[in-house]
Design goal:
Number of helices: 4
Distance between the termini: 36 Å
Oligomer: single chain
Number of strands: 0
Helix content: over 70%
Length: 169
């Protein structure tokens, strides 16, 4: 395959991966926002705690989606390692996501339902960039590509002239 063809294939693969990540992330976003608003409506739990509950529920849904849809073709040999890293990076994403909401709510006093939803959504957006990079790099590692065997050089007949630049001096 030519260098340009290989680049095109890698870009196509990355585009499919981003689309699948987006589908799972979209479902996770809906779960996260729905649980957040439900908890806020039904209970007296403070905004950031409600957000933490919603984020944890969404993380569980996302793991299933990533493992069995987005990254189903990736290495499955180290599930304990995979789940540990997923949880570590998810917690970092949780801190990013809820840090934005916390800062807006308690730092700036923006605490209306509309503002809560806006900053929750914004935090999810920032955390998503981190999660995409970390999940694809560290958690759901690609299987090693089979090494393409280079074609063996054809034996040279005794009477053939030597190729240019390969003569002995």
């Amino acid at each position: 395959m030519s260098e340009r063809g290989a680049l095109r294939a890698r870009l196509d693969q990355l585009a499919r991966e981003i689309a699948k990540f987006g589908v799972v992330g979209g479902v996770g976003l809906l779960v996260n926002m729905a649980v957040f608003n439900l908890v806020r409506q039904v209970t007296e739990i403070p905004v950031v705690r409600a957000s933490l509950i919603a984020t944890v529920v969404a993380i569980g849904c996302n793991y299933v989606g990533f493992r069995y849809f987005t990254y189903r073709d990736r290495d499955k040999s180290g599930r304990t390692r995979e789940m540990t890293l997923f949880l570590v990076f998810s917690v970092v994403g949780l801190v990013i996501e809820n840090g934005v909401l916390y800062t807006a709510t308690y730092g700036f006093g923006w605490d209306s339902p509309l503002q809560n939803n806006f900053f929750k959504f914004s935090g999810i957006g920032v955390a998503t960039l981190f999660r995409f990079w970390s999940y694809r790099t560290w958690v759901f590692r690609a299987l090693p590509l089979p090494e393409a065997a280079a074609p063996a050089p054809e034996p040279q007949a005794a009477g053939d002239p030597e190729p240019v630049g390969q003569g002995s001096r």
